[in-house]
Give the backbone structure.
Amino acid sequence: MKKVIWVIIACNILNAQKKDVIYTSPPIASAINLNNNATSEHINIPNTKIFFLPFDKNYKLSNGAMVSGSNNYSLTVLESDGSTVKNTIDDFSKESFESKGLKVFDEKFITVNGVKSKIIFIQGQPQLKGAILFIDNKTEKEMITAMYDASDALLENKVKDMLYTVVYNKNFSVDYLGNANYNINISGTKFRFQKYTSNFYNFTEGGKDAGILEPNIIISQVPGSGNTDLKSFFEEAKKSLLKYGFGDLEIKNISETKNSLQAEIHGKFNGRPSVCYYKIMKDPEKNFILFLMASSKQDTEQDLLQFKKIGATFSFK
């Protein structure tokens, strides 16, 4: 499935809408060349190559995220494969954000540990401000989004200063599968882990790069709770298929429990018979949903058997 480009993700996160708001510009940091080294006081954002020096100890960490214990700021990191996300720092512009209804206070070209980057200060709601740092290392991209209470000037300065303690260690080894929040057993199938990008775990035949017609499995965690309606979530996933060349869709073998849903969607992809298998799960004790989607556009019957075999082992850690 085609990944959503970072600009749209950022704007959706901030719920951008044009409003009549009195804006106050955040202080502009003077740093241009950030060449920080990770110290014993720095913390790693789990499942990423990004480190920060926190300004207090009142925070919680999860894969790709750091959230204030007081819920007045958050910091997320989206790591993407350069072969998947083609955007560059030149695309990351004031105009692109303003076209989505965001107020832009300032944009600045900087370098982070020798890598060309850009930081931009924005506001999408009266009560919420943000700063986004985009690090473009060509083969991989890092989008760091900080959001904070717009009414707290002291907090704003602290978050801004924390952003400028960033360390991007491109040689840092990340055990993406080891850090995953799910269990899965792919032994006895043709699928192997290929890569982690844009918050998606990708599995392909033999772990090789896959063409558009090759079978693949993607797994992700998305924000949610024990109250999330999985059927509605599935319906939205079904609608998204229509944007990517699928048609004549028919739902088959749908089954639901209190905390899970699995289903098949049969149809055509650019005129070819196709099948997509879904398994979606929630846990009342978790603040995220696990989502598995597998698609086949050639050997659909045999691939579906393997999808179901894998789906039967898919669970929360």
Q: What stands out?
A: Helices lie at 6-13, 94-98, 153-163, 176-179, 230-241, 300-311. The CA atoms of residues 186 and 192 lie 7 Å apart.
